[in-house]
Amino acid sequence: MAPSPSEPGDTSWVDRRDDSARSWADEAVRRVVADANRSADTHLHVFPLPPEWGIDLYLKDESVHPTGSLKHRLARSLFLYGLANGWIREGTTIVEASSGSTAVSEAYFAQLVGLDFVTVIPRRTSPEKIALIERYGGKCHFVDTPPAMYAEAERLAAETGGHYMDQFTYAERATDWRGNNNIAESIFEQLSLERHPCPDWIVVGAGTGGTSATIGRYLRYRRLSTRLAVVDPENSAFFPGWVTGAADYSTGMPSQIEGIGRPRMEPSFVPSVIDLMMPVPDAASIAAMRHLHDVTGLSAGGSTGTNLWGAWQLIARMLREGRGGSVVTLICDGGERYQHSYYNDAWVAERGLDPAPYRAAVDRFLAEEVWAPPRTP
C-alpha cells in the first residue's frame, strides 16, 4: 500500500499503515507463539555415573521438540524476529542455508503460517532430514559444497523476492538471552531442586553459534559461576578461530558431524562468552553417541556424541581435582535421522573412522575412573 497523508491536505506526516498486512502478521505471530505454548519444556535426563564420584551429568533432551531437534527453538526465534521486524509478510518465500535440522524446523514453521519454504542444502545431508523437510512442505535446493550455500541462498531469495533467514548471522540476536524461556533459563529452572543446582560446566557444540551465545550471555547476566565449554568437531573453523582470535578463520572443509562445525567463523559465533573450547575427533563423537544408546536407550545424533565426549573430559578433570558438582550438556536431535550413517558400521568405515578405541576409553573411564583416550594423529 502506498504511503498516504495522515489527514486530508496534510503532507507533513506519512502514514505507512497497512491494516491487512499487520493483521496477517499478527495471526502469524499468534500461531508461532501458540506452538510454543502447546509444547512442554524439554526433559532433563540424568546420565548414570558412579555414585561415589559425587558428580551429576545431565542431558537436556532437545530431540523431543515437535521437529525433533534443538533447532526448533532457533527456527521459532528466527520466525518471530523476521515477523516482528516486518521482513516476513503474507506471500513471502522463506529461504535458508542449512545443513539439515534448521531447515526441518523452518519448513515446519513456514507451513504453520502458510508460506513457501526453500532451503539450500549440501547433497551429503542425510536422506532422513531431506524427507522431513519435504514432509513439512519444504523444497530442497542442493549444492555440492557447504561454502556455496550462502551465496546460493542469497541468489534464490533475490530471485523469488523472498526473505533469506540467514541463521548464521541472526541466530545470536533473534533469541532473548536474558530469559523468556530460552534454553539457559530452562536449564537452571530444571536444576533448582537438584543437589548441585548451579553446574560447574555447560557443554554445547556450535553450528550457528546461537546456542553458545545465548547460554554464555545468560550466565554473565545472571552472575552465575557456571562456565561454558564449546566442543568442536574435525574440519571446523570455530576452535582454531577461537584459539588464534582470527574472526575470519576458514578451513573450507565440511564437518562430518551434522549440525555442528562450520567451514568458516560464522557471524553468530561469539567467542568472548566462551570459557573453554575443546576439539573432538569425529570417531570419538560416534563412539560417545553409540555408548549413550547402549547404556540409556536414548538414541541421538553425532553432535550429541561430541557434547558427551567434552562432558566426560571435564568430569575427568573434576575427579582429578577432587571436586563434586554437576555438568549439563544437550541431546541435540534424535538418532533416527542417522540410521544410515553414524549407526551404520559400513558407512563409518568408508569414511576412515574407527570408534572402537574411543568406546574402550569411555568404558574404562566409567568403570575404573581412568581417562586415557587415544592420542589423535
Report what the structure shows.
- By secondary structure, the protein is α/β, with parallel strands linked by helices.
- It has two domains: 217 residues, Rossmann fold (3-Layer(aba) Sandwich); 100 residues, Rossmann fold.
- 41% of the residues lie in helices and 17% in strands.
- The strands form three sheets. The protein has a six-stranded mixed sheet, sandwiched between helices. A four-stranded parallel sheet has the order 7-6-5-8, sandwiched between helices.
- Helix 8 links the parallel strand 9 and strand 10.
- The longest helix has 20 residues.
- The N and C termini lie far apart (62 Å).
- The model has no long low-confidence stretch (mean pLDDT 93).
The proportion of strand residues reads 15-25%
Alpha-beta classification: alpha/beta
Cα end-to-end separation? 62 Å
Look at the structure and give the mean pLDDT: 93
Give the proportion of residues in helices. 40-55%
Main sheet summary? 6 strands, mixed
Radius of gyration: 22 Å
The gross shape turns out to be globular
Number of domains: 2
Catalytic activity: L-cysteine + H2O = hydrogen sulfide + pyruvate + NH4(+) + H(+)
Keywords: Cytoplasm, Lyase, Pyridoxal phosphate, Transferase
Modified residues (N6-(pyridoxal phosphate)lysine): 71
Protein name: L-cysteine desulfhydrase Cds1
Helices and strands in order:
Elements: E1 4-7, E2 10-15, H1 19-38, E3 43-47, E4 55-61, H2 71-84, E5 94-97, H3 101-113, E6 117-122, H4 127-135, E7 139-143, H5 149-160, E8 163-164, H6 167-174, H7 183-190, E9 201-205, H8 210-221, E10 227-233, H9 238-244, E11 276-280, H10 282-296, H11 302-320, E12 325-331, H12 345-350, H13 356-368
Parallel strand pairs: 4-12, 5-6, 5-8, 6-7, 9-10, 9-12, 10-11
Antiparallel strand pairs: 1-2, 3-4
Family: Belongs to the cysteine synthase/cystathionine beta-synthase family. Cds1 subfamily.
GO molecular function: lyase activity; pyridoxal phosphate binding; transferase activity
Enzyme class: lyase
